[in-house]
Amino acid sequence: MMQLYYLPGACSLADHIVLEWTGADYDVTEVSPRILRSADFLAMNPGANVPLLRDGDLLLTENVAVLHYLAERFPHAALMGDTPRARAETMRWLAFMNSDVHSGFKVVFALRAGDDPDPQAAQRVRTAQRKVRAYLERLDRQLAGREWITGTRSIADPYLLVMFRWAVSADVDLDGLRNLTAFARRMYLDAGVKAALLVEEGLAL
Fold it and tell me: N vs C: which end of the chain shows fewer Cβ within 10 Å?
């Protein structure tokens, strides 16, 4: 049985949703910031972060790698696309969210947590929020006329939901992003999303 290590509110939620979508036999283990720094966890993942997926003797880290592995491991779920072009589109949007959007949120959360002694930190937070907003505008445009970010359901969609949820928690301006907001509403109606959020955050949607 596969084991997913997760931290509530983290990007590991995307992997949890994908596991639900695949119908895989799996279990989840919640970790805390303290556990992430423990010797036992560091022995499995020196990066001290989530997600961490255990599948037999495989210990896999890095969100994009875990998502891609699950799509390959369970091809019946059709979460990568069925042509080279479709698979490239899935990876394009995963890469954008991982390298640009996700990184932009790291700046926002670090500054808001007071990790930066710069007296101009508040202004830097606003600048970072505007940068994230610009990324979300690009995603909103991509969703125009589409139910899913690539046109068909893929491993990129749960990651996009995580980015939306982070935007809400980080007070990023979502005004006018109708396509993105509609996407999130549809995702919250999904049975796999509901199941994952119920386990991770006790949210009965």
Answer: N
